[in-house]
């Protein structure tokens, strides 16, 4: 697919996600409802297969465009396991296993709660040896949720232990890259919402954007969003690089995790009390960001992993390590 | 609105990676006796010898046309050389301003004669330049410049005082920004730039100013009716402001904007290597993550400059994020390692910590303060 085709596709997907995330739908999803019609709309466009190469049953969407779709799921805080399903199908295709029918998700070896475990029909389980296994039946042992009220469930499954190997990038790192992209998408939206809010909100007889301290806070937020965006680009490159991309993804997650902390604190502050309500949509993004930055490996996990690699390189090789890591 | 937060992806450039190995080999030889403390001087270290060696290798004026002594190489190759010499802690000050800022300005606005006489010598590492912008009453508010060049018979007569002139005492030439008509009330209008031959112009007095670290890097430069020849004018009379704004874009986004404290990170890694500590690993991981993302942002601006775009807002973002990061490093290092800052210490970590701490305050001032940068970024997002 050429770049212009890719851009057109992204425009169409962007509009679809806007339609699917109107206030009523977001409320229902956050109350624990499965948005079946929304999922059908996403499936009709073929999006669950976007990260699958054409020769393995995909639609021939460029991998970079597919990752841009993942970013859009973040931009809209899409309350569906689309990114997870895209990744699951990507892993299944790489491992030569049959693709998922319907929504799918990932169960990492470390045993973290499974996103959307109660609603999906297929799981890709990461085995302790780093392989993957396709799982079709399991029981949810605890229905949990993340800070954005999205399902994060403990599951139990009997497995036949038949692991297949896949492309090389560990499943946890692949998932971490997906979350880095979503973080960048949502950060972008937070900048837009906040810049718009301060331009419209009047106090002391003028828009609060006229106060220099407000301008400087928005600049800080924008810079953090820029860092998160570059981190996501780096994660996407790491994802496409395979086994050698792990450090780039680790770095992306550490930097974007920090961007989330600074950025959401500015956004919440600049919105005032209205931003602290369920009415205003800012919280969709804030709460999603707070959770995504610790999913598929916590911030601390990735920071330690990256730090351990740098310390192993040592001071004399430190700069070489930096230039080769990403 | 959102264009400001999206940066170009830096391309992979195989030729540049070969060059990187050449530069590393050169630096290993050149810097084998340089102490960690001196390496941490970053772009303050001054050595005409080192700069001439850089010139001989063809690593100055790299992107300029060959007819002016340049080497017609890509911006990415230049980027590789610059980041390698900074990361290694080489003494770059004798060529730094000429190669990065003054040379490109002369190339853009100079007359054929100015280009022919000055650029080949900058590219050879033979000419030291300094920047005469700031004044006692004109810092962030550059348009408030009071220094004045008056057209007289035989050229221009300059009166006024420039301040904080880095390397003024070593420099052969200054690019001077001043007023040529009107008054400070006219703001940007009526300003111009001049090439000042500091070693051969009577009426110029240079006085040292000792900085917080106890060192002599910057100066006060006083012009007492100094006479400049007619061809000292650089570019167009009255266009000084626009010329200077273009110059600052070169100045705001390079690797120098986040590598000032790299030697302290290196010493920190040396101290922490082999320690089995979650805290140490996480802290070092965070520093690396910042470096990788800053480097990507900075190379993204280089890609945008190469593509002929005007990434002024992106450059401001790099400089602001970079300075905040650089300045955070000593604060982080000192909480992780049980050692006092001590510039005379035999322990590299302690000496470098002291030097970095003493120099850090300048990083969010020079080249545009944090507050000015944030104003530029806010405007880029559509506020103000
Ligand atoms: C190490 C070093 C090297 C330097 N080298 C050179 C050189 O070679 N040549 C040269 O010309 N200059 C040089 N400078 C000067 C540098 O460009 C100025 O320091 C800088 O432009 C700020 O000016 P100022 O110091 O007068 O501070 P001021 O402009 O007086 O600012 C003081 C404080 O007020 C804030 N402030 C000012 N205006 C505003 C505003 N509108 N809104 C909000 N806050 C504001 C600033 O951000 C700052 O925090 C150097 C400075 C340093 C520290």
Could you please describe the fold and organization of this structure?
The complex is a heterodimer of chains A (326) and B (384). Chain A has helices at 3-20, 23-30, 36-44, 63-75, 82-95, 171-200, 212-241, 246-271, 282-292, 299-313, 318-325, and strands at residues 104-107, 114-115, 122-126, 132-135, 139-142, 152-156, 202-203, 206-207. With 326 residues, chain A is mainly alpha-helical. Chain A has two domains: 3-164, Butyryl-Coa Dehydrogenase, subunit A, domain 1 (Orthogonal Bundle); 171-325, Butyryl-CoA Dehydrogenase, subunit A, domain 3. In chain A, strands 1-3-4 form a three-stranded mixed beta sheet, covered by helices on one side. A three-stranded antiparallel beta sheet of chain A has the order 2-6-5, with no helix packed on it. Chain B is α+β, with helices and mostly antiparallel strands and 384 residues long. Chain B has three domains: 16-128, Butyryl-Coa Dehydrogenase, subunit A, domain 1 (Orthogonal Bundle), CATH 1.10.540; 131-239, Butyryl-CoA Dehydrogenase, subunit A, domain 2, CATH 2.40.110; 243-380, Butyryl-CoA Dehydrogenase, subunit A, domain 3 (Up-down Bundle). Chain B has twelve helices and eight strands. In chain B, strands 1-4-5-8 form a four-stranded mixed beta sheet, with helices on one face. A four-stranded antiparallel beta sheet of chain B has the order 2-3-7-6, with no helix packed on it. In chain B, helix 1 (14-30) runs parallel beside helix 4 (75-87), helix 5 (93-109) runs antiparallel to helix 6 (112-123) and helix 9 (278-306) runs antiparallel to helix 10. At the A-B interface, helix 6, helix 7, helix 8, helix 10 and helix 11 of A face helix 8, helix 9, helix 10 and helix 12 of B. The structure holds flavin-adenine dinucleotide (FAD). Residues 130-134, 139-140, 164-166, 218, 362, 365-366, 369, 371-372 of chain B line the site of flavin-adenine dinucleotide.
């Amino acid at each position: 697919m050429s770049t212009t085709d890719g851009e057109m596709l992204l425009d169409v997907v962007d509009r679809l996600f806007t339609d699917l995330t109107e206030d009523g739908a977001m409320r229902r999803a956050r109350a624990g409802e499965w948005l079946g019609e929304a999922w059908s709309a996403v499936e009709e466009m073929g999006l669950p297969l976007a990260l699958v190469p054409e020769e393995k049953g995909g639609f021939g969407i460029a991998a970079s465009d597919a990752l841009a779709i993942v970013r859009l799921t973040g931009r809209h805080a899409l309350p569906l396991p689309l990114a997870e399903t895209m990744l699951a199908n990507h892993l299944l295709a790489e491992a030569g296993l049959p693709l998922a029918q319907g929504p799918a998700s990932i169960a990492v070896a470390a045993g973290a709660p499974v996103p959307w475990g109660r609603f999906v029909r297929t799981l890709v389980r990461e085995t302790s040896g780093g392989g993957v296994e396709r799982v079709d039946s399991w029981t949810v042992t605890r229905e949990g949720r993340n800070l954005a009220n999205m399902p994060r469930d403990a599951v139990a499954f009997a497995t036949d232990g038949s692991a297949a190997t896949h492309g090389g990038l560990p499943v946890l790192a692949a998932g971490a890259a997906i979350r880095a992209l979503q973080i960048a998408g949502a950060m972008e939206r937070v900048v837009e919402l906040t810049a718009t809010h301060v331009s419209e909100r009047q106090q002391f007889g003028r828009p609060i954007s006229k106060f220099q301290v407000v301008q400087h806070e928005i600049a800080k937020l924008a810079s953090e969003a820029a860092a998160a965006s570059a981190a996501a680009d780096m994660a996407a490159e790491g994802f496409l690089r395979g086994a050698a991309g792990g450090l780039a993804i680790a770095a992306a997650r550490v930097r974007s995790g920090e961007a989330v902390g600074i950025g959401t604190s500015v956004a919440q502050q600049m919105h005032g009390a209205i931003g602290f309500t369920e009415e205003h949509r800012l919280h969709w993004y804030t709460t999603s960001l707070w959770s995504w930055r610790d999913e598929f490996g916590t911030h601390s996990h990735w920071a330690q992993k990256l730090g351990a690699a740098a310390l192993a390189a040592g001071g004399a090789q430190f700069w070489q390590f930096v230039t080769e890591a990403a | 609105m959102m264009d400001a937060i999206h940066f170009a992806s830096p391309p992979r450039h195989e030729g540049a990676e070969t060059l990187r190995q050449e530069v590393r080999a050169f630096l290993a030889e050149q810097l084998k006796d340089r102490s960690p403390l001196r390496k941490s001087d970053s772009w303050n270290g001054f050595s005409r010898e080192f700069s001439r060696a850089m010139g001989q290798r063809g690593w100055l004026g790299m992107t300029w046309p060959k007819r002016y002594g340049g080497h017609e190489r890509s911006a990415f190759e230049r980027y590789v050389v610059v980041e390698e010499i900074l990361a290694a802690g080489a003494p770059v000050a004798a060529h730094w301003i000429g190669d990065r800022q003054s040379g490109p300005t002369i190339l853009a606005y100079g007359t054929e004669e100015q280009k022919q006489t000055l650029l080949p010598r900058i590219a050879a590492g033979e000419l030291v330049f300094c920047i005469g912008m700031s004044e006692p009453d004109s810092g962030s508010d550059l348009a408030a410049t009071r220094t004045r060049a008056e057209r007289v018979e035989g050229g221009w007569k300059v009166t006024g005082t420039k301040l904080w002139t880095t390397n003024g005492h070593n420099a052969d030439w200054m690019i001077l920004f001043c007023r040529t008509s009107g008054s400070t009330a006219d703001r940007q209008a009526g300003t111009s730039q001049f090439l000042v031959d500091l070693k051969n112009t009577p009426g110029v007095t240079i006085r040292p100013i000792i900085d917080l670290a106890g060192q002599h890097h910057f100066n006060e430069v006083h012009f007492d009716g100094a006479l400049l020849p007619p061809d000292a004018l650089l570019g167009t009379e009255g266009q000084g402001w626009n010329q200077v704004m273009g110059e600052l874009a070169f100045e705001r986004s390079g690797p120098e904007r986040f590598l000032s404290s790299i030697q302290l990170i290196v010493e920190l890694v040396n101290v922490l290597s082999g320690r089995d500590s979650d805290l140490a690993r996480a802290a070092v991981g965070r520093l690396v993550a910042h470096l990788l993302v800053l480097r990507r942002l900075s190379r993204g601006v280089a890609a945008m400059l190469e593509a002929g775009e005007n990434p002024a807002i992106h450059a401001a973002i790099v400089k602001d994020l970079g300075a905040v990061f650089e300045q955070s490093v000593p604060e982080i290092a000192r909480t992780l390692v049980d050692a006092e800052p001590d510039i005379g210490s035999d322990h590299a970590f302690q000496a470098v910590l002291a030097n970095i701490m003493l120099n850090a305050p300048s990083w969010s001032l020079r080249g545009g303060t944090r507050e000015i940068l944030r104003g530029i970024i806010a405007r880029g997002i559509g506020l103000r």
